[in-house]
Amino acid sequence: MTNCDALIVGGGPAGSTCARALRQAGWNVIVIDRARFPRDKVCAGWLTPDVFRLLDLAPAEYRDAGLTLQEITGFRTGLLRGPSLDTPYAHVVSYAIRRREFDEYLLRRARVHVREQTALTSLRRDGRVWAANEEIRTPFVIGAGGHFCPVARRLRDRAAPSPPIVAKEAEYRLDGRGSTVAPNVAEFFFCNDLDGYGWCVRKGGYLNVGIGRRGGPHFNAHVNDFVSFLESSGKAPGASRLQWRGHAYLASGVGPRPVVADGLLLIGDAAGLACPESGEGIRPAIESARLAAQTVIAAGGRHGVEALLPYQAAVSRLHPRVHGASAVVRSVQAAIGRALLRSPAFTRHVVLDRWFLRRS
Ligand SMILES: Cc1cc2nc3c(=O)[nH]c(=O)nc-3n(C[C@H](O)[C@H](O)[C@H](O)COP(=O)(O)OP(=O)(O)OC[C@H]3O[C@@H](n4cnc5c(N)ncnc54)[C@H](O)[C@@H]3O)c2cc1C
Q1: Ligand 1 centroid distance, CA of 346 (Å)
Q2: Strand segments (E) across the chain
């Protein structure tokens, strides 16, 4: 058995951020991940500006490491197949990265022990600590394994089920293939019921296209409609022949979900913290990872659930409950929303600044 101060299950942005924060506080941390890095992650890779600040990383430093960093200075928005609106900004308002590069960079930068191609297969109480895979003994296990995190399953059984965001995307090198999508303009096209949207995001010589929706009914019909829109608009000619990959994850705000138990904490997608309006999950993953690290450090050697409750409270403050509306109210809201999407002021100040860029 190997002993460590904390075991982190999953080396995505949540796991690597938490690992780095704990290592900087002098903790002996092990990260296990079932994948071998660099690994692909189904994701548009669009980042709000806060992400680099929270990571304590200058965008220039990231680019200088030879990694793809697409600056975004404007947005094109509208309803799928409706008129679109361009919203330019005078400066860089966000970035797009490739997840296989970004996640590996953050994981190596954490400078902790990483065991790749190692899935969590067993977790049991061994006196006052946890025994993982019958190999690692530790007082703290931090679940950062994404939507299907095995640590989260232990806590989620007790929580009310909630419908996930379902999404499909394709990312490919343009290699001379045409696209009308400009490198510095991210494009978002909302479904008619406003329950989801499709996107087109350039990352240098790569194009990422995808669609995500709250809940699954008729999802494939929405995907097919989006694919034919990509082809007919010239945004992604040949889109139906791309390799589309799907994934699901949970948005925050649907009610209380336990994120702590004795010696256990959930962070990132394992805790279900994606932003309900935009589906952004990378920033909440990093934010929650930092909060979890602060909580276990402040616990000063205590690892019972009471010592970890400040983390549950901090997550609830960051992601307050959003009350669901009835079907009638939602259809009225959607009708108003469709009209408002034609307004340049509403699009800039509410849709983009508040919901997508989260500028206060
Ligand atoms: C199609 C799509 C598009 C998206 N676009 C955006 C976007 O543009 N911007 C944005 O901010 N967010 C986006 N998101 C959300 C974002 O991808 C996630 O919220 C984010 O990756 C969460 O990070 P994480 O570290 O919690 O989990 P992950 O990034 O999923 O990392 C989890 C890690 O755990 C490992 N793991 C899983 N199971 C085990 C196990 N049993 N044992 C060991 N390791 C395990 C995995 O291999 C993985 O490396 C998108 C999501 C989807 C599906």
Answers
A1: 31
A2: 2-3, 6-9, 29-32, 46-47, 69-72, 74-79, 84-88, 94-97, 113-115, 123-126, 129-132, 136-138, 140-143, 165-173, 185-190, 196-203, 206-214, 245-249, 260-261, 264-266
Residue nearest to atom 42 of ligand 1 (CA): 119
2-45+98-162+252-318 and 165-248+326-356 share one CATH topology?
Answer: no
Among 244, 250, 282, 291, the mutation site with the greatest number of ligand 1 atoms within 8 A of its Cβ is 282
Tell me if 274 CB under 6 Å of ligand 1: yes
CATH class for domain 165-248+326-356? Answer: alpha beta
SS3 147: coil
Ligand 1: centre distance to CA 269 (Å): 6
**Probe residue for ligand 1, chosen from 8, 18, 31, 34 as the CB with the greatest number of ligand atoms within 8 Å:** 34
d(CA 44, CA 199): 8
User: Over 80: is that where the pLDDT of 332 sits?
Assistant: no
Cα separation, 249 vs 356, whole angstroms: 18
Give the residue extent of every domain in the chain.
2-45+98-162+252-318, 165-248+326-356
Q: Is 49 in the pocket of ligand 1 (CB under 6 A)?
A: no
At residue 6, the pLDDT reads: 98
Out of 78-87, 107-116, 247-256, pick the least confident. 247-256
Please name the residue whose Cα sits nearest to atom 31 of ligand 1.
Answer: 12
Domain at 2-45+98-162+252-318, CATH homologous superfamily: FAD/NAD(P)-binding domain (3.50.50.60)
Residue 100 beta carbon below 6 angstroms from any ligand 1 atom: no
Q: What is the pTM (predicted TM-score) of this model? A: 0.94
